[in-house]
Specification:
By secondary structure, the chain is an alpha+beta fold. It contains five helices and 13 strands. The strands form four sheets. Strands 2, 3, 4, 5 and 6 form a five-stranded antiparallel β-sheet that branches. It has a four-stranded antiparallel β-sheet with strand order 1-13-8-9. Strand 8 and strand 9 form a beta hairpin. The radius of gyration is 19 Å and the shape is globular.
Length: 256
Amino acid sequence: MKNPRISLAGTWLCATLAASVLASVAAMAQAQTVPDNNASPSSRPRLPMTAVRLPEVLSDSMGVDFTAYFDDSVLPAVRQNWHAVVRQKGLAPSPAWKIVAEFAILRDGKLTGLKLAESSGDPDADQAALAAITSSAPFAALPAEFKGDSLALRCHLDVFSPHTNTGDARPPRLIHNVAPEFSSEARRKKIEGVVTLSLVVDTDGLPTDVQVVNPLGHGLDEKAVEAVQQWRFQPATKDGNPVAMKINAQVNFHLY
């Protein structure tokens, strides 16, 4: 049997953005991304969404740039768990939430010294933030070039209101694409089709709140989410400043 290949048809963040997709990204794998059209621009609510900012390094970094480590090993887990814990506890995100937590990551990725540095004023939100960080550990081991025993961090957990109307903001641009894999079940049953996802591209250009809108099943929904969570964007901008924006993405699965 031939190995399956995945073909993802066309990449758009809106109808006018196709030409801006990098050629190397399109050659590797393409994905169709379209604005959220579930409602008219004037009626779409801009509900607050949970957010986690790039951590501040409190200890000696020893000249090591931890940006890639944070992007790959810390932020995705904390963001996902922050959103999940808030939902599980039935909390309504509030713009008043400005939570700061401090903790350290040991060389092997274990968490230590977690504490609340600044409260939101809402005890439930504070506890949810700490629970999100706790459930995200252990993280990946610290980069090999870092020779310290631990890395002390300050992490900001808050909320933002995503822009869903592309008329007043320049949409995000896809700069790094990861192709999804087939699930074993879908490969065995030769399942093909499209998974539609909604996501928010935050002000750091990272996908957050990735949700399945139109599922395909057979394990492909999870594979689509895993891939999109690894995408990277130049964030949307309004008046020259980065803003969060909600978009939809269609991931096509085809066997050859």
